[in-house]
Amino acid sequence: MSRPSRSSGLPRWVFVPAAVGALFILLPLVALASQVEWSHFVDLITSESSRSALVLSLRTSAISTVLCLLLGVPMALVLARTSFRGQGALRSLVLLPLVLPPVVGGIALLYTFGRKGLLGETIEVLGLQIAFSTTAVVIAQTFVSLPFLVVSLEGALRTAGEQYEVVASTLGARPTTVLRRVTLPLVLPGLAAGAVLSFARALGEFGATITFAGSLEGVTRTLPLEIYLQRESDPDAAVALSLVLVVVAVLVIALVRGPRREAL
Amino acid sequence: MSLHVAAAFTDRDVRVELDLADGETVAVLGPNGSGKSTLLAAIAGIARPDAGRAVLDGTTLFDVAVGTWMAPHARGTALMAQDPLLFPHLDVLDNVGFGPRSAGATRGAARAVARTWLAEVDATDLADRRTAQLSGGQAQRVAVARALAAKPRLLLLDEPMAALDVTVVPAMRQVLRRVLAGRSAIIVTHDVLDALLLADRVVVMEGGRVVEHGPTRQVLARPRSSFGAGIAGLNQARGVAESGAVRTPAGLLVAGLHDSIDVPEGAAAVAVFSPSAVSVHTERPSGSPRNVFAATVRELEPHGSQVRVQTDEISADVTAPVVAELDLAPGAAVFLAVKASEVAIYAT
Fold first, then answer.
1. What is chain B's Cα-based Rg?
2. Which tops the pLDDT comparison, B213 or A116?
3. Do B73 and A174 touch (CB under 8 A)?
4. Residue B130 at interface with chain A, using a CB cutoff of 8 Å
5. Structural domains in chain A, sorted by start
6. What residues have CB less than 8 Å from A242, skipping those under 6 apart?
7. Mutual angle of helices A102-113 and A134-160, in 10-degree steps
8. Which of B73, B77, B89 sits opposite A173 (nearest CB)?
9. What is the pLDDT of residues A117-158, one digit of tens each?
């Protein structure tokens, strides 16, 4: 900080609650870090159950991020580049998983894909059993993280505007070519940010997963579930695993904010 | 490559009809909001008219009555606007190669085509630049190359020089003059010089209607519309080219911007400049203007919000307070100055 700080024109008292708020966020993280048994840290996070939970979490989060991209990119394109009756309602609906309590989402998924659910019988006829399987974990994670991708990509698309796409089309580019060579490259930072946020949300997913997928070690017990269970039996392991998720979260923020700030 | 278009936009109160012969360049002149850009948008397929039809070389671009609407990419009507809109994620070469690449050319072939078009607009040295590193004039030349590389059947130019610095406009005009020769094109402009130098025919639009059309020189010589009258009366000094200037039979030497000269020494040439570019002084102005002419005021007449000062060879537009301040009256001896950068010189 070599530059003298500008006088912001804010009343001084505003800094007091602002500082309290910052401490409110920071303190729990410090408290968590202070509880870590550093001597056993590596053992704790590499134990059999921890490792299988971590691997399951990473695997399912990666798959649901891909699903979010496959479903979310077209959704964002339709929302940002077309207009039709009921579009406003649809946009609000897409946001629903963002504000819905995850447990409620889990119950809703259970009554959709579960045995007695809306699609359950159809799925059973196909010889599939979704509830309480790894597939259910992926579905739950995709359900809650899809809005993150759609919202950030739609914003990026609106900011980018359609003018380059119009030029590309008058130069003879077909709609698919325009999408591939102009639209998506221009919103790549927004797309990457959306994907990273979706991944992070999937990694932290708890409520919908435990409701819809249960907690079977190696099958549906993801890292957040493992932490919740270990909290009773082995608090040290729970703390160590929590720290792993904190580190991942910090990395995610760095990934999303870092390049964007440079671009501005 | 002939074009017939008739389009109506009811909410914008625009109703236009236009014909274009093969290889012909038409300039669409008119004040802001007269519907010029709307016409181009309808031809390019980025705005849907409420009524009308357009046929380009036997292909129907749109026909509202029967519900025909050809997608913009299939029309072969490259549109170039005020803003060059070069794709920021591609370098200059790949920007120009975008059209050929979209038409199915390999990357190598598209780049080869791009290089020839960059050469055509004197921008070969820009090939490897990022678009953010270009000046306004450079970016617009690249945009011209990009539009031409797409091999359009019809080139649409929407005020291509309106956003450019005045010092680079003459050079850009020369580039356009070269590439538009023998090409089917429509250029929307508010600058009468563009019409004079680039177009075979002029269409004047006002309030969403075509109010006047015809061969450029005819329209500018005997304008019937008020907009046509406003833009007519350009100073044209005809003579022979002499070291970057035009020497008139009366002995005036009118210098133009160096970039704008592609006229061989001694050839018949004309120097064109607007009356509004001419300033009037009672004493010989010192300083930069290269063109200073001693003249005698013959006539003063109101011209829009200004006063047109007529001398034997050159007219100038000045404001009423200036007339009062300089005490101008017929018979007064004055000096007329015009910057070389405001003068376009071309062969006749």
1. 22
2. B213
3. yes
4. no
5. 41-162+188-263 (1.10.3720.10)
6. A32, A227
7. 120
8. B73
9. 888 778 777 777 788 899 999 999 999 999 999 999 999 999
Contact B73 A163 (CB under 8 A): no
Task: Answer yes or no: do B264 and B192 share one domain.
Answer: no
pLDDT at A224: 94
Residue of A nearest to B149 (CA): A171
> Under a CB-based contact definition with an 8 Å cutoff, are residues B129 and B92 in contact?
yes
Q: What are B86-145's pLDDT values in tens digits?
A: 999 999 999 999 999 999 999 999 999 999 999 989 899 999 999 999 999 899 999 999
Give, to the nearest 10 degrees, the angle between helix B107-120 and helix B136-149.
Answer: 120
Query: Are residues B176 and B41 part of one domain?
Result: yes
Range of the domain at B338: 235-347
Q: Residue B85: closest CA among chain A residues belongs to which residue? A: A164
What average pLDDT score do residues A151-168 get? 93
Number of domains present in the structure of chain B: 2
CA atoms within 13 A on the CB side of B289: 20
Structure-block tokens of residue B121: 């607009």
**Amino acid B144: pLDDT:** 93
Q: Are residues B23 and B163 both part of a single domain? A: yes
Residue of chain A nearest B74, judged by CA positions = A172
| Nearest CB neighbour to A173, from listed B76, B77, B102 | B102
Is residue B156 domain-shared with residue B180, that is, in the same domain? yes
Query: d(Cα B262, Cα B103) in Å, to the nearest integer?
Result: 35
Residue B209 and residue B283 in one domain? no
Q: What is the pTM of this model?
A: 0.78
Determine whether the interchain pair A170/B71 forms a contact, defined as Cβ–Cβ distance below 8 Å: no
pLDDT for A180-233, tens place per residue?
A: 999 999 999 999 999 999 999 999 999 999 999 999 888 999 999 999 998 888
CA distance B76 to chain A (A): 7
Query: Which tokens sit at A199?
Result: 């991944």
Report yes or no: B99 at the A interface, CB cutoff 8 Å. Answer: yes
Contact indicator for B35, B151 with CB cutoff of 8 Å: no
Q: What is the CATH number of the domain that holds B167?
A: 3.40.50.300
Determine the Cα–Cα distance for residues B116 and B114; give it in Å rounded to an integer: 6
Give the CATH number of the domain where residue B273 resides.
Answer: 2.40.50.100
Query: Looking at the predicted structure, is the pLDDT value of residue B175 above 50?
Result: yes
**Same-domain pairing of B282 and B336:** yes
Q: How far apart are CA B285 and CA B109, in angstroms?
A: 56
**pLDDT grade for A264, boundaries at 50, 70 and 90:** very low
Write down which residue in B231, B249, B266 finishes a domain.
Answer: B231
Phi first, then psi, for residue B236 (nearest 5°) are -125, 110
CA distances (Å), B321 to each of A202, B305, B324, B328, in order? 73, 11, 5, 10
pLDDT confidence of B342, banded at 50, 70, 90?
Answer: confident
Give the distance from residue A173's alpha carbon to the nearest chain B alpha carbon, in angstroms.
5
Question: In terms of domains, do B302 and B283 share one?
Answer: yes
Last residue of a domain, one of B197, B231, B265: B231
Q: Quick one: tokens of A251?
A: 């990395």
